[in-house]
Amino acid sequence: MKALNLIAVILITSTIMFASNEKATVAATTTISGQILDKITGEALAGVKIEFEETVIYSDLDGNFEINNVIPGIHKINTSLISYNNSSIEVDCKSETKGLEIKLDNE
Fold first, then answer.
1. Residue pair 31/67 in contact by the 8 Å Cβ criterion
2. What is the pTM of this model?
3. pLDDT in tens, 43-59
4. Residue 34's CB: how many other CB atoms inside 10 A?
5. Do the beta carbons of residue 82 and residue 51 sit within 8 Å?
6. How many other C-beta atoms are found inside a 10 Å radius of the C-beta of residue 52?
7. Does position 105 have pLDDT exceeding 90, yes or no?
8. What DSSP assignment string belongs to the chain?
């Protein structure tokens, strides 16, 4: 009987620990957001391909983008658009990174 109670306590404790670790992982992520602009004219660029680790997204009609569930740290963001030079920047994400401006040069 004591062995059965011990097993039950171990199972309950491990379940609680797993659940609390899962919440900590979700809470530890952040967001990167910003806008892609033409370096010379300052115009917003729509449809820019944005590569972040294994994620690929595209800027909206106003050049805006948002990358969610980012683990804090230093990350590389690659951008590309036809008739513009490809761009690669590093971003240090300690907390939510908003207002990031990426300016692309014409070829």
1. yes
2. 0.71
3. 999 999 999 998 999 99
4. 20
5. no
6. 17
7. yes
8. -HHHHHHHHHHHHHHHHHHHHHHHHHHT-EEEEEEEEETTT--B-TT-EEEETTEEEE--TTSEEEEEEEPSEEEEEEEE-TTB--EEEEEEESS-EEEEEEEE-B-
The pLDDT tens digits for 2-56 are: 655 556 556 566 565 555 555 444 558 889 999 999 999 999 999 999 999 989 9
Domains of the chain in sequence order: 29-104 (2.60.40.1120)
Q: Which two tokens stand for residue 13?
A: 């404790």
Distance, in Å, from the CA atom of 58 to the CA atom of 65, rounded to the nearest integer, reads: 7
As given in the structure block, the two tokens for residue 10 are 């171990």
- How many residues comprise the chain? 107
Rounded Cα gap, residues 39 and 43, in angstroms: 8
Tokens of 100: 């990031």
